[in-house]
Amino acid sequence: MSLWRIIVKYNVPFEIPKGVISPIIRNATNYSELDFKTKDLKTIDELPVNYIRLDIIKWDPPEEVPYDLDRNIKNFKKYVENEEYWYAHEEIEAIWSNSKGGDREIIQNIILLLAAMVHYQMNKQESFKKLFSTSLNKLKEKGIIKSEIAYSYPLGREYVLSLVSYLDQYSRYEKYEENKAEN
Fold first, then answer.
1. How far apart (Å, rounded) are the C-alpha atoms in residues 151 and 120?
2. What is the mean pLDDT of residues 57-81?
3. Contacts of 111 (CB under 8 A, 6+ apart)
4. Which positions ≥6 away from 6 have C-beta within 8 Å?
5. How far is residue 145's CA from residue 140's CA, in Å, rounded to a whole number?
6. Quick one: which of 31, 46, 38, 51 has its CA closest to 5?
7. Per-residue model confidence as pLDDT tens digits over 132-180
8. What is the pTM of this model?
9. Which residue has the higher pLDDT, 176 or 92?
10. In the Cβ-directed half-sphere of 37, how many Cα atoms lie within 13 Å?
């Protein structure tokens, strides 16, 4: 029997349907997202139909986001700008699993920052504060985020530009290293 992951995005209040497993609600500025697992796709018939997006993912085995640095960075930026921090987290994790040295620690702290934003969306304030503070301090310490940038939800333009700037620089360095190894 297959297990399915259903992600539904609503811009109006909704109720969690019967038959869902491990429901998670993430609230962004202009929408709420219901993420759950089910053994029976008939559960979809019980969903309120006023959704603005529905993703159905077969959940056995879970798929990993493929590593394609340029695509991962492009998707990361798009997801962060749309407050889809969970998806952004998946994209950056693909980069992290292929990184080395000091960059690996920086990318891990970007992952923690995104995890903090997911916790914020789920109204888990204590874990949000801890993750956000830890990751932000490390990213400031490494010079990735300027210390004068103030926190905002959603992540402000300055955060996004700082993170994307670092990832673009990381990408150029990785391509340089690949070319050097080939020659």
1. 13
2. 83
3. 89, 92, 93, 96
4. 20, 34, 35, 36, 37, 38, 43, 44, 47, 54, 55, 56, 57
5. 5
6. 38
7. 999 999 999 999 998 777 777 888 888 888 999 999 999 999 888 888 8
8. 0.78
9. 92
10. 10
DSSP string, the chain: ---EEEEEEESS---PPTT-EEEEEEE-SS-EEEEEEES-GGGGGGS-S-EEEEEEEE-SSPPPPP--HHHHHHHHHHHHHTT-HHHHHHHHHHHHTT--HHHHHHHHHHHHHHHHHHHHHTT-HHHHHHHHHHHHHHHHHTTSS-TTPPP-SS--HHHHHHHHHHHHHHHHHHHHHHHHHH-
Q: Of 92, 86, 119, 89, whose CA–CA distance to 7 is shortest?
A: 86
Contact 80, 160 (CB under 8 A): yes
Tokens linked to 19 = 């038959």
Res 87: pLDDT:
87
**Which among 12, 91, 107 is positioned nearest to 51, based on CA atoms?**
12
Question: What span, in angstroms and rounded, lies between the C-alpha atoms of 133 and 113?
Answer: 9
Report the C-alpha gap between 167 and 172 in whole angstroms.
9
Structure tokens of 70? 């340029």
